[in-house]
Amino acid sequence: GFCSAATRLLKSANASYEEHNLTGKWEELEAVKARYGHPTVPLVIVDGQLIGGYNELNALVRSKGAAAIR
Asked: Partner of 26 at 20 to 30 A CA spacing, among 3, 38, 56, 63?
């Protein structure tokens, strides 16, 4: 799915990242989604700012290069 795709993209860009798997932690997941105002997963956050999901992450890397997420 999109979470796995985001992980692959981050790895291929040699980006340093921290993954939080909230599978089965519905209350925590809903709280994070509400905090960032993003209804789906993954939630990609760079330097405390929500980038969006996989599609937004992919667009960022395509437009600005891998350095944008390192």
From this structure: 56
